[in-house]
## 1
Amino acid sequence: MSRVGRLPIEVPSGVDVEIKGTHIRVKGPKGELSHTFPPVIKITLDDGTLSVDRLSEEKYHRSMHGTARAVINNMVEGVTKGFEKFLEINGVGYRAEMQGKNLLLNLGYSHPIDVVPREGIEFEVLERNNVIRVSGYNKQVVGQVAAEIRGLRPVEPYKGKGIRYRGEHVRRKAGKAGKV
């Protein structure tokens, strides 16, 4: 049995879960998420506890068991607590600032880059305009938006300039050795 898939999911108070076959809808204080799983998964709700079961021991069914449980757990956690990613900006003249709800980035290009948030995503600029916080209730969308922002100016290995995730380690290169 799947080690992840067999764990029950506690549904906190204030979270509404609606199950129709393999379609699940989770509504909480931060937002509403829904997902449809393949028919090899069975989802049940008993006394505020969600459980995920599979129909057989085939390889595909086993792989979907833990995945479905993790997705449902992220949905429940997202509508109650939410998710966030932090991005750090390094480089002379590189900075971020808020313009209403939009994020304005100066990354050494000839023009500033305006990033418009998707639905359910919020930006916040912290620590002397060098740290960006991307937050929202959908874990997949938060990660995708953070990756897109990082992709605007990835960290280069010689001087370390660019946008990186908080805690990300970038291997540095020595550069030219010079004439001997």
## 2
Amino acid sequence: MKELIEEAKRIHAQAIEELERGEKLNNELLIRDAAEKAWLEAIIASDELIITKELPIPETHGERYRALRAIEAEDEGIKKLGLSDRLGARDTHLHRQCFYKGECEVKAIKEDLGKVKRYVEDIEKTVVSITER
């Protein structure tokens, strides 16, 4: 259990390293890649929760959002975490705006990396809580 969470944490460290290197070298591609790694981190952590709740592994982002909303609908504690909304925000900021469109402000990406880290931490706590029941 929690193998995906551990993978997400490794990816987070790589995203930070890449962002710092991209900022230092003023390399837009490294900054965009760091944003995409952070997005991947959020996806992987989401899948850990979905698997823990014994739902099928999503094949698309739409399936992932639907699974998260279904989990939130059945569990008020998880709903309060706002996971589907938080994932949607990271999708917009990191994946669509930065990675695809190149609209990357380093300061904003750093903030998003912190938000992704907290997202993963919230999922990890939730997974632990579920598995201890």
## 3
Amino acid sequence: MPNRSGDWLAQAEHDLDQAEASHRDGRHDWACFAAHQAAEKAVKALHMAQGREVWGHVATRLLSELPEAPPAELIERARVLDNYYVPARYPNGHVEGPAYEHYGSLHSSQAVDHARDILNFVRQALAET
């Protein structure tokens, strides 16, 4: 199987750009989802670069399964992002109202920051690999 980690990291960077743009545009639901996607894809890139096949969408688990444990606070940041994988996209993700009504600038700003921290961790780990 070819090593596609570079493609996954490039997509993670692109998703982070989208999260930042969505945050600026006031599309906070999409910013939160894109931030989750950036983190998930970056961690998958790290697994692939280290020769592991990886599946799933839970960034917390993906980080936790790395051979060298990341800092606990990074796991907590991933845990926040995991909450945006489904509810930020679907009208039935919340008790009532469309998803976008449940997310504001505080959510998306934090999500972008958390994703950026995870991407920075992955970039550093890749540089050391």
